[in-house]
Amino acid sequence: MAITILPPVVEDARPYEVDSDDSMSMDSEDDVEMTGISRPHKRPRLQGNSNIGTGIVTPGEVVTDDPQWMRGHGTYMNPLSTSIIATVAGTVQKTNKLLSVHPLRARYTPEIGDLVVGRIVEVQSRRWKVDVAAPLLAQLPLSAINLPGGILRRRTSADELQIRTFFSEGDLVVAEVQSVHQDGSASLHTRSLKYGKLRNGVFLAVTGTGGSGASSSSVKGGVGAATSASGSALAAPGGSGTGGVVRSRRQVWTVSTSNGGGEVNIVLGVNGYIYISKHNDGGDAASSTTENVSITRMEEMVSSSIYSSQNDDIPPPTRREIARLAQCIRVLVQSGVRVDEDTVMGAYNASLQVDLEIGDDEDEEDEWRQEGREYLEGAKAQQILELVKQQL
């Protein structure tokens, strides 16, 4: 029987889809001649028509099942598949081949050196537990505060028995992050004249810390004589944007307000807590009586009343200007504008300018019209935002 040899069957040759970087590496290492060969097709990248979710994703939603992508923060990968699944509600961010989900609303992450405003929630042995809007409560050790009179000594058992005379539950405090533990909790200190208990003002809780995330605001507390700075929360209508308190050159400053309001202190906590209060003239009076005292002992004259919980008498013009500054911050946050010294002062000056323009059109003798000038919503808020954005 004759044997017939059949020629081999050649399959259709298709170029292997590789990245341009891989092809260049093959050419440089193996000296492969590239002439006469069509350029290989690139892998499909993340575009609007890709299978990767764009916009807002929810927890459990599959972002992509393409194995070329690596998972980042806010995602996890099923070990039995190549799907990248979102763990938080947020927007998808791409960094080269890395996919991450930025949450719409995240809690504050403490960092060393941050100036924060917190509320005492628990008194323990030799320490206080402070709410700083972080996932874990921060701790303020007894050894990390100034004793009354500026005395420098070791803390004794007598100080532990009198720990509630310094700070008690519900007190507001401004402090600095001294260290961050391995579990993410922060340790605070108030060993400075610019830190300590807060009073004579109004407290605002602003979301969108660090200049990212959704933005809303709420105002708590009130300004009054012989009253505490705690009260019911007045929730403000929230808005979306990228507003929030950002780390800036100066977080604490004094404003010389108009309309006879005097000087007002503003404390912008990096954690999103803000405190606006009347400027305390006690430090100036103490400094005038201690001109001949050394700088190391000047703290003794000032820190004798820093742990007082009694509010001072605040005149009505100062209260109105404190309320105006609080409204300006709320307008910035609701519109997604960052909150720092420049934007706050720009919004305050813009509100004065808008009131001046409105006052020219109104009868100066009409007192009931003058009472509502501190209301900064609606058309007035839009005018203030336009003036602020022109300055940015």
TrEMBL record:
Ranges where the record places region Disordered: 16-56
Q: Which InterPro entries match?
A: Exosome_cplx_N_dom, Exosome_RNA_bind1/RRP40/RRP4, KH_dom_type_1_sf, NA-bd_OB-fold, S1_RRP4
Bias type Acidic residues, positions? 18-33
Q: Does the keyword Zinc apply?
A: no
Superkingdom in the source lineage: Eukaryota
Question: Which intervals hold domain RRP4 S1?
Answer: 107-179
Recorded GO molecular functions are: RNA binding
What is a single cellular component term in the Gene Ontology annotation? ribosome
UniProt entry keywords in alphabetical sequence: Exosome, Nucleus, Ribonucleoprotein, Ribosomal protein, RNA-binding, rRNA processing
Q: State its location(s).
A: Nucleus
SUPFAM superfamilies from the entry?
Eukaryotic type KH-domain (KH-domain type I), Nucleic acid-binding proteins, Ribosomal L27 protein-like
Q: Name one GO biological process term.
A: exonucleolytic trimming to generate mature 3'-end of 5.8S rRNA from tricistronic rRNA transcript (SSU-rRNA, 5.8S rRNA, LSU-rRNA)
Q: Which residues form the Exosome complex component N-terminal domain?
A: 56-95
Q: Where would you say this protein principally sits, based on its record?
A: nucleus
Record's family? Belongs to the RRP4 family.
UniProt name for this protein:
Ribosomal protein L27
The scientific name of the source species is Penicillium fimorum
